[in-house]
Amino acid sequence: MPLELYHMHLSQSERIVWLLEEMEISYELKVFYRDPVTALSPDELKALNPAGTAPYLRDTNVSPPVCLSESTAIAAYLLAVYGPQSESEARLDRAPGDPDYAAYLEWFHYANGSLQASLFRQMSLTLATGDPEHAGVRRGVARLDAQLRFVDERLARTGAWLAGERLSAADCMAVFSLTTMRGFYPLDLTLYPNILRWLRDVAGRPAYRRALEKGDNSMEPMIGPTVRKFTEFPGLKAVLEKF
Ligand SMILES: N[C@@H](CCC(=O)N[C@@H](CS)C(=O)NCC(=O)O)C(=O)O
């Protein structure tokens, strides 16, 4: 099989599994599990991917093979090389000239460029200070709230998906930060009703269900206002209990 996706359970690579399932193209999924103690990448994945992270894509349809380890680049590559080439076909990206093109670009990059970065920084800062009243932690909470309101208002405006009326790869890119990431950094979404509506719509997509079935042992979608913490990893348990 020439297109191989290396996916790690409970990780950012779920974006790409969902995207590939929506695209309905043939690929081989290789599933790895986080180290059972630290929850970091297992050694087998580090040995295969020089970046040591998931996702990792190998395309051996071309010579030399294309190997990519950044999810935004992987999504853009798959859409450009394996997506529909004509405007009349249902595409998961938007081309220049499409009224949603600029919005698509912004939302395609927003989750990984801004939201995921803030979540990771906030998680690290909260753990490092151990103090929810620390000035930096409080600033981070306010920043995350502003970012989530930005997403929520966008979804209220479209009444549908991030780039507009139709699903796009921007939705696939955003899903991890608003679902599975919350198992590592609990984020209560009660105040963001449009994000919650969008999450229900995501969970209603057969391709998303297939992605969870194939890549994450048919895990229930983490779409409620609050979700469970990943306390099954001993190396994370004490950490997660602090949140
Ligand atoms: N910016 C990268 C981030 C990749 C990344 O950090 N993946 C995490 C999974 S959520 C990982 O592999 N972590 C394991 C580790 O760092 O050991 C992307 O979007 O692909």
From TrEMBL:
<dbReference type="Pfam" id="PF13409">
    <property type="entry name" value="GST_N_2"/>
</dbReference>
<dbReference type="InterPro" id="IPR036249">
    <property type="entry name" value="Thioredoxin-like_sf"/>
</dbReference>
<dbReference type="InterPro" id="IPR036282">
    <property type="entry name" value="Glutathione-S-Trfase_C_sf"/>
</dbReference>
<comment type="similarity">
    <text>Belongs to the GST superfamily.</text>
</comment>
<dbReference type="InterPro" id="IPR040079">
    <property type="entry name" value="Glutathione_S-Trfase"/>
</dbReference>
<dbReference type="InterPro" id="IPR004045">
    <property type="entry name" value="Glutathione_S-Trfase_N"/>
</dbReference>
<protein>
    <recommendedName>
        <fullName>Glutathione S-transferase</fullName>
    </recommendedName>
</protein>
<feature type="domain" description="GST N-terminal">
    <location>
        <begin position="1"/>
        <end position="86"/>
    </location>
</feature>
<dbReference type="Pfam" id="PF13410">
    <property type="entry name" value="GST_C_2"/>
</dbReference>
<dbReference type="InterPro" id="IPR010987">
    <property type="entry name" value="Glutathione-S-Trfase_C-like"/>
</dbReference>
<feature type="domain" description="GST C-terminal">
    <location>
        <begin position="97"/>
        <end position="233"/>
    </location>
</feature>
